[in-house]
Design a protein that fits this description.
Length: about 325
């Protein structure tokens, strides 16, 4: 892939790229800021090579002649002149090659550092507490992940996440903290908040405990207030807000499960991530039943299902790693 990109860049710089190739290059550049840095490094080397070539063609003869006039006025002849010109050309080519190697090495090192990815993932029923390089702390819930690259903390503090994570961000007004989750970017300076963004869930949410967060999605931008929950309905592409019940978004950090008027369909997704089971609905109407309650981390799936079945019309049976709802 890298070789084909290099060929595409050189074709563009030489003015030989077709409109299709130009569009392909543009799409590649817009895909990642690191791509732009790489393009800049190739262009710098290319431009330097073109300048050196011009110098060789226009100044070598004149400079060598001036040198001979000053140092060897009595021994200048065609043979010496030709040899001198060749030596100067070789020296210039060598220096140009050395500069190119240093430039390529410099940008390659920069690219390598920025592309070093740190990723923290959790499995079923697992939770992890992570300290970021800037001193911020992140709790990562089950079946979730966060990642950041080597440029974290240089101009900003950017992390990508999937699943659920609770953030306590160290305040730094000069380097904004950016969380990319699902289709949103959350811009933070210093605050505590919880993001719920599982790919298989039809809703994504941000619950702001304290501080300030600006939610961004395309042209949409909104500042969230403490004690507020932003909810994004993926199915209908609709944003809504509700009042924060803190325990429902923070209890999981201590191994508890808190369900606040949650549909049974949503509840089963969370149980699947905590107990490594799959729910099968033999009665589809049950999915819309709501449930509220909390459970401790040491309580078994059987215990939880018994409690749920006593307060809702849910009937179930457990067979190995599958729970059938009827």
């Amino acid at each position: 892939m890298k070789e084909s990109v290099d060929i595409l860049i050189i074709s563009y710089l030489k003015g030989e790229a077709t409109p299709e190739q130009q569009n392909e290059l543009l799409a590649w550049l817009e895909a990642d800021v690191e791509n732009k840095l790489y393009f800049r490094s190739i262009k710098d080397v290319y431009d330097l090579g073109r300048i050196e070539s011009d110098l060789l063609n226009s100044q070598v003869d004149r400079q060598w002649k001036k040198f001979l006039d000053h140092v060897l006025p009595s021994r200048r002849n065609h043979r010496w002149l030709q040899l001198g010109k060749n030596m100067l050309r070789y020296a210039a080519v060598f220096m140009f090659g050395l500069v190119c190697m240093q430039l390529i090495s410099y940008f390659a090192d920069k690219r390598e550092v920025s592309s070093r990815l740190t990723k923290i993932e959790t499995g079923v029923g697992e939770r992890s507490k992570v300290s970021l390089p800037d001193g911020s702390t992140v709790w990562v819930n089950a079946c979730s992940s966060i990642s950041y690259d080597g440029s974290f903390g240089e101009k900003d503090r950017t992390v990508h996440m999937k699943g659920e994570a609770y953030f306590e961000v160290k305040k730094d007004s000069t380097r904004p903290f950016l969380v990319h989750a699902d289709q949103f970017t959350f811009r933070v300076t210093g605050t505590s908040f919880n993001v719920y963004a599982f790919d298989d869930d039809h809703e994504m949410s941000l619950a702001l405990i304290e501080g300030s967060v600006t939610a961004e999605k395309g042209t949409y931008s909104e500042k969230i207030r403490p004690g507020e929950v932003l909810v994004y309905d993926k199915t209908h592409a609709k944003i809504s807000h509700k009042q924060l019940i803190t325990s429902s978004y923070t209890a999981w950090r201590y191994g508890e499960m808190f369900f606040d008027k949650m549909t049974f369909e949503e509840l089963t997704l969370r149980l699947e991530r905590n107990f490594n089971v799959k729910f099968k609905f033999e009665n589809q109407k049950i999915k819309k039943e709501s449930f509220g309650g909390s459970f401790r981390k040491y309580e078994s799936l059987e215990t939880i299902m018994k409690v749920i079945s006593t307060s809702t019309p849910v009937k179930y049976r457990i067979e190995k790693d599958t729970v059938y709802i009827k």
